[in-house]
Predict the 3D structure of the following.
Amino acid sequence: MVVHPDLFDVPGPSRTLTHEVGHYLGLFHMWNVDGSCEDLDFVEDTPVQAYPYYDCPGGERVTCGSPDMYMNFMDYTDPMCMYFFTTGQIQRMERILMEFRPGLLTTPSNCTPRDVLSDFMVFPNPVENGRLKIRFDDEDALLLKIYIYDITGKLIYQQQTWAIGELVVQTRILQPGVYVLSVNGTATSFAVF
């Protein structure tokens, strides 16, 4: 396995572990080493692309006849630009987990995730540059369950992640309006202009 060295030298939270766990659970990169457009990742809903992306590309990029999915965890873009696995990738990881790594589901652990926040704040409010920061006073790693609802109560976004002190949530997908943010059951509102 080859890991791009830039994955280890990025500001802010890294997605290297997410990427490598994807490999551990059976995922491949969406491009081929030789630059061909042959689909070799065994996942139907990921378009094949000719090469990896670095930095944080903007706008649609097309290789191999379809838009590239550079925002996928299995690419090499900057952490702030990686934010999902496809449904097919999730299904493949679940299948690999059940068939080849079932012990991971039943191995006892002495770790009990802490998910109680002492208090948190969100800023900037209104959101600027598509980034909402959640800051909390706890110095320990917390398992955060984040939900964003629109003003009608419809769930727009959800994420579960570990964080220490601060977490940045990408809000570029949100239309202008008022939203409710729930973090581990405690809610506040924020606006997007």
In short: The chain has a mean pLDDT of 85. Residues 179 and 190 are 5 Å apart (CA to CA). The radius of gyration is 18 Å.
